[in-house]
Design brief:
The chain is an alpha/beta fold. The chain is about 50% helix and about 15% strand.
């Protein structure tokens, strides 16, 4: 049976102590607890009554201050106006630079006001510290940078006072300012209240302004404070979960003569605490789903209403939602999810970056990676089919492309395309209107009955609101003068924006962040990300005020922040009966950290009635993982093999099969090719194509002619132009004028140049008799053999065939490295092996050319441009010192090996099997 919650006790107290509930105002730490308290009151009263007024502490403070809370983005604009007024002319930073440090300074202003510190004392303290740091710097040693740094600390009081005056003139204020103003009005507000008409409940860590407020209203009898304290922590002077409440109980004057309400003992009750470690954060999401499924199976229909999933790291929300079992269709997500980490925002940010980068270049040019990131984005595929354009960019190696050229390549009018890819040459703020229109277009593609689309819709709505708000502020202030500034503003606004999801707060599974769990209790709690750095958050502090100064002035440090997390952690466990604590076992990586100290503390300070279990969950490894892939030859596969046999097997297809039959299956049977990508830097295969093409065009006019030194010198004279032409043909729109591509151009030119020099040296020094017979010529040969089920056509392109000193030489150019051992065979029976792939290939060329050779002696081999000093690497048998003469006997031996290979490929009983590595 579920234990009564804190709100159940509070509701009972309200009904018992306050007969006129309509006159009572209940103040809670957050807005979300309001509806849960009303429900608790409803359950405990048999007849209708007028409910008490229930507000959050921030709502009460805002009322007392008489000012309107200012939005964070608007506050940044107002602060910039103050900054421009205070800063000497010509020294002011542009808005995008200013905003980087202004956010931190505004947080410090907020803390100073919330803790009611004298701002002049704080700023003077900071300036004195800076003076001490620079005490030994002479006047003549002060650089302009040091002068600016000194000026920053001197102007802090002017920034603070100017901001206060400007906001007060507009009837607005930031949170800390509202607190300070509320305390200033406290005497007047308290005088208007009747005795005992305020009830503060469920608070823990108070700032100085809240402490002043609570104590004054307690002492004057206007209010009552009910704490949710636990005796175990309150009586332990070293336990951080009771740090703040102990301080209030022991130091507040009111508690010298009044009792401290309330102190319970629920933490000592029986509990099952399951500590579960798993690798990586996303693994926790799947465990959440698995736990809920197990709980639902044990108690069908009775789990959701008494269970809370509390996310220590709120970025886990979407993985958790995808991992939930189907039985949990009713959800209440009581947390603000950051708007920045979703696909819609990622698309908007990429579009912004595309135009910011383009406008920063001469002539407004889009970078291919920025373009492809947008064209391939899932949200863009909802709006239209832009895959063909992406393919064109990849195929033609467009590294940079102008908007006008992009429209030509797209080839049709399209409203979304115009919206995204037209120049943003107008007022910078028009970019916000364009993105708002894009969001509306995305909204029209969403299916409201689909859960995934419903989540996307919430993101779209929040981002639309953010853009409109930003457009309004930019219109009201003239600071957004460039696209870079608007983009900086957008990033700041999105950083602060949170998505609120709709749900039924009193029904279904509760999914919330840590702060939203305040005041609430659940029978079953699943808490994720219980790691150092997440829970607690760690020692990071984004502030201009040093740690020692904070301690001196009474501002909260990481010690107090850790104590807040400790209270929230133990409060979640306080009345729960079943607890699941999930943590990431990985100690390295972006989402990793040590196991939280809270888990260790639970293990060391185990209560008598607590039963702790500790398990490690790993992702299940599929059975058979690591076994070689084996694919049987179905009828369709056999038909495809017959089709290949009729159209041709190439030497490269045969060597692919020898290396890995599964790769052959994917490439030749299924015809799966690697996706085209823009080669920003020239790839190895592209470089090879360029070298082959250059040699072909240089030597083609010389086919059939005995080569002379003058012929080679003519090739050398046209070399640069020919390599440049090949780059334009193959690399198309790619830029070869700079960077790695310029180096690749030089590499290609040098490889061909070295080959020409070597050939010229052979003509001069060796008096070689060379006649080029064919270049990049296709040859074929039908194979008819009793061991084959049907004839097979062998076809391939030979790079070069020449007659050299009375012998026909077949040459295969390789841009990679090859050694003589790669062309040396020990025994014909061992030919069909991966290490002999180059031999299989060059002998295939000789086999196809046999008829054209007309009985002339042949040799075949490769020329490796990375091993050019070794010259022609001809096929030879082991023990021979010169290339072997490929005669009829050698070709018959090759044919037998080749037929054996083909019969295996075509045999329907022999499956395609992945080779097993030793």
């Amino acid at each position: 049976m579920a234990q009564p919650t804190f709100l159940d006790h509070l509701a009972a107290d309200i009904l018992a102590q306050y007969p006129h509930t309509i006159d009572l105002t209940v103040v809670l730490p957050n807005k979300r607890a309001r509806i849960f308290l009303l429900e608790a009151i409803r359950k405990q009263t048999p007849q209708p009554l007028l409910a008490p007024r229930i507000v959050s502490i921030e709502e009460m403070v805002t009322e007392m201050a008489g000012l309107k809370a200012v939005d964070n983005v608007e506050l940044l604009f107002v602060f910039y106006a103050v900054y421009l007024e205070v800063t000497p002319v010509g020294q002011a930073q542009p808005f995008d630079v200013f905003s980087n440090w202004a956010v931190t300074l505004l947080q410090d202003f907020n803390e100073i006001d919330r803790y009611l510190l004298d701002p002049d004392r704080v700023f003077s303290y900071l300036k004195d510290i800076d003076d001490i740091k620079r005490w030994n710097i002479g006047q003549d040693e002060k650089t302009p940078l040091i002068e600016k740094y000194v000026g920053f600390w001197q102007q802090l009081p002017l920034y603070y006072d100017g901001l206060q005056q400007k906001l007060r003139a507009e009837g607005k204020g930031y949170q800390g300012m509202l607190y300070r103003e509320a305390i200033h009005n406290l005497e007047h507000v308290a005088a208007t209240l009747s005795d005992g008409t305020l009830l503060f409940a469920g608070f823990n860590a108070l700032n100085a302004a809240e402490e002043t407020l609570f104590q004054h209203l307690l002492v004057t009898g206007k209010a009552r404070v009910i704490w949710d304290a636990e005796k175990t922590f309150l009586d332990d002077p070293l336990h951080d979960a009771g740090l703040f409440l102990r301080r209030y109980r022991d130091t507040w004057r009111y508690y010298r003569s009044h009792s401290f309400e309330w102190m319970g003992t629920a933490f000592s009750d029986p509990k099952e605490i399951n500590i579960i470690g798993t690798p990586k954060a996303v693994g926790q999401a799947y465990i959440v789903g698995s736990l809920l499924e197990t709980l639902e199976a044990a108690q069908p229909g009775n789990v959701a209403d008494h269970t809370a999933v509390v996310l220590g790291d709120e970025s886990l929300l979407l993985p958790v939602l995808h991992a939930l079992p189907d039985a949990f269709s009713a959800l209440n997500i009581t947390m603000g999810y950051p708007a920045k980490g979703n696909p819609v925002q990622v698309l908007l940010s990429r579009i912004f970056r595309l135009h910011v980068n383009a406008s920063g270049k001469s002539g407004y040019v889009f970078y291919h990676r920025d373009l492809l990131e947008i064209l391939d984005h899932p949200m863009m595929t909802r709006l239209g089919d832009y895959r063909a354009l992406a393919a064109v960019l990849r195929r033609n190696n467009f590294t940079f492309v102008r908007p006008e050229r992009l429209h030509e390549l797209f080839g049709k009018r399209d409203a979304i395309f115009e919206l995204v890819f037209s120049r943003w040459d107008g007022a910078p703020t028009q970019s916000l209107n364009r993105l708002s229109e894009l969001l509306l277009a995305i909204r029209h593609t969403l299916d409201t009955h689909d859960n995934a689309d419903a989540i996307t819709g919430a993101f779209v709505y929040t981002l639309y609101q953010t853009l409109n708000k930003l457009a309004h502020y930019c219109g009201a202030h003239a600071y957004a003068t460039s696209l870079e500034t608007v983009y900086a503003l957008y990033r700041q606004a999105v950083q602060l924006a949170e998505v609120s999801f709709e749900g039924e707060p009193l029904g279904g599974l509760q999914i919330m962040g840590v702060l939203e769990s305040r005041v609430l209790d659940f029978d079953t709690v699943i808490l994720t990300s219980v790691n150092e750095g997440s829970f607690p958050a760690g020692k990071s502090s984004n502030s201009f005020i040093p740690h020692d100064v904070k301690r001196e002035l009474g501002l909260p440090t990481y010690k107090e922040k850790d104590a807040i997390y400790t209270y929230h952690f133990y409060h979640l466990l306080q009345r729960a009966q079943h607890v699941y604590l999930l943590y990431n076992t990985e100690s390295e990586g972006l989402d990793a950290g040590e196991k939280s100290r809270f888990i260790t503390q639970l293990e060391i300070e185990t209560q008598a009635n607590h039963r702790l279990t500790h398990t490690i969950w790993n992702a299940p490894v599929p059975e058979g993982d690591g076994t070689p892939v084996v694919i049987e030859k179905s009828t369709a596969v056999q038909d495809r093999l017959r089709e290949i046999a009729n159209s041709s097997f190439s030497p490269s297809a045969l060597t692919t099969y020898v290396r890995n039959p599964i790769e052959f299956y994917f490439r030749r049977i299924l015809r799966i090719r690697e996706a085209d990508e823009v080669e920003e830097n020239i790839a190895v295969n592209t470089l090879g194509t360029i070298i082959h093409g250059t040699l072909e065009r240089l030597y083609r006019p010389l086919i059939g002619k005995r080569l002379t030194v003058a012929d080679i010198e003519g090739c050398e004279a046209g070399l640069d132009d020919e390599v440049a032409y090949q780059f334009r043909e193959v690399y198309r729109e790619g830029d070869i004028r700079k960077g790695k591509n310029l180096l690749a151009f030089e590499v290609a030119r040098r490889h061909v140049s070295n080959y020409l020099k070597q050939e010229k040296a052979q003509l001069v020094d060796e008096n070689a008799d060379i006649t080029v017979l064919a270049l990049e010529q296709e040859y074929q040969r039908w194979i008819h053999h009793p061991r084959l089920p049907y004839p097979v056509l062998l076809k391939g392109n030979v790079d070069r065939i020449e007659r050299r000193d009375g012998r026909i030489r077949i040459v295969d150019f390789k841009t990679g490295r090859a050694e003589q051992r790669n062309l040396t065979l020990g025994d014909w029976d061992a030919l069909i092996a991966p290490e002999h792939d180059k031999i299989i290939q060059v002998l295939a060329y000789a086999y196809m050319y046999e008829e054209e050779a007309g009985g002339s002696p042949m040799e075949a081999g490769v020329v490796s441009f990375k091993n050019l000093k070794s010259g022609f690497l001809g096929f030879r048998m082991k023990g021979e010192q010169v290339p072997a003469v490929i005669d009829r006997m050698a070709l018959e031996a090759y044919e037998e090996a080749l037929v054996g290979l083909l019969s295996e490929i075509l045999d329907p009983t022999v499956p395609f099997a992945e080779p097993v590595l030793a």
